[in-house]
Amino acid sequence: MDGTKVKTYLQQQFDSFVKDLETLTNIDSGNGDPEGTDRAARFVGEKLQALGATIEYRKNPRSTHLIARLKGKGTFRLLLIAHIDTVFKPGEAVKRPFRLDEKNIAYGPGVGDDKATVIQTIYALKTLKEYDFDAFGEIILYYNGEEEGGSPTAEAIVAELSPQADVAVIMDTARPGWGIVTQRKGSANYDIKVEGISGHAGNAPHSCASAIMELGNQISLLYKLASPLPQNPHEYTREALQQKGIVDHGQFITANAINVGVIGSSNDRINVIPGDAFAKLNVRCYTVAEQERLDRAIKDLPNQTVVPGVKVTVTGGIHTGPMEKTDQVQKLVDVYKNIVRREYGAEVVEWMAGGLTDGNRTAKFIPTIDALGVENYEEHTDHEYVDLNTAVPRTTALVLLLAEITESWPLA
Predict the structure, then answer these.
(1) Tally of CA atoms within 13 A in the half-sphere of 177 that contains its CB
(2) Phi and psi (nearest 5°) for 222?
(3) Which of 299, 320, 341 finishes a domain?
(4) Residue 202 DSSP symbol
(5) Less CB within 10 Å around the terminal CB: N or C of the chain?
(6) What is the pLDDT of residues 194-253, one digit of tens each?
């Protein structure tokens, strides 16, 4: 694929790109809106069908999911994932319809997260078709209708499609200045239940066992398992880093994070020794090995009590693995970096992220890179906007990436 020709073609298609983005943005497709997500899925499906893709719609009571397949003549198989749902309720598009200003900044509900990126995938395929590029075996496109809230339907589809591909590219919104995400933390949830012996706080502490005191011990043990925290968190705010001239791309996120988000007890009196207590926690880390190590350590906490007479029970475990940067992922990233450097004279910045996307799920099966979409800002707010000046460059880089990994797979 000739980079200059791709840029020229996509620039010629820009007005059409904007028109399609306007149409999609003005379709309310909030998470849990079955009618809206169905309209959005069918709009996208018709566009892809016109390009020769086969279309499948999968519905549940909350949403419509879209799977499209484009066959080629080669062997390399690619999975592209984006999402058509937003966080906004029905009526938001009427209240805040799509708007484009003189600087090519577009506004509207879900305009960037993830609708501009959805349109980007359509125009990437249009470009491949324009230049008769069919050296791939199959491009599978999955448009999640429940990404913003998660669902068993979406998880099952990702688990079904991932083994059918060699590489996954997650078309989530991009980070600023050619930023992409190459690592995401996995997630695990646990409940700690402490059973003690209640009684009068003054008269009978020797025959009681404080569940809350033991819960404090358990939390202290969790604190020791977590990665060390910064000495002064105020020095790591966005404003503080900017003042130091430091660009934050996730490099300060700790290797693992253990957050005890909820604690409680049925006891509400200070003169009663509490007979029960509980905690709920979330654990996130970048590697499978660390996730498994912490899982073992947390499940061993009942063996480390300090209050005589208490019983500690730990339930829960790992529910989503990390998106690891494996050697094969690094090779994909290097191809993308070389393309951006060659075509735009720019440097790609690798971001680390603590949040989850479908990339966490595809990474269980195949090499995955994330956030190759159009650059978006202030997502999930009523002033969300997408920088459409990045639409042509980001789509050009995506097209060339698909072409180059297709022609050179497996990457040496």
Answers:
(1) 8
(2) -65, -40
(3) 320
(4) T
(5) C
(6) 999 999 999 877 899 999 999 999 999 999 999 998 889 999 998 999 999 998 899 999
Instruction: Answer left, alpha or beta for residue 98, where phi above 0 means left and psi between -120 and 50 means alpha.
Output: beta
147-151-153-158 Cα dihedral, nearest 10 degrees: 50
Do 166 and 195 belong together in one domain? no
Last residue of a domain, one of 256, 290, 320: 320
Q: Quick one: 60 and 15 in the same domain?
A: yes
Report the number of distinct structural domains present in the chain: 2
How far is residue 394's CA from residue 412's CA, in Å, rounded to a whole number? 25
Q: Specify whether the CB–CB gap between 310 and 235 falls below 8 A.
A: no
Token output for 154 = 């979406």
Phi and psi at 88, nearest 5°, equal -100, 150
Do residues 62 and 176 both lie within one domain? yes
In whole angstroms, what is the distance from residue 115 CA to residue 2 CA? 27
Domain that includes residue 70, residue range? 3-184+323-408
* Co-location of 193 and 330 in the same domain: no
Cβ(104)–Cβ(112) below 8 Å: no
Its pTM surpasses 0.90: yes
Nearest CA among 41, 78, 75 for reference residue 58? 41
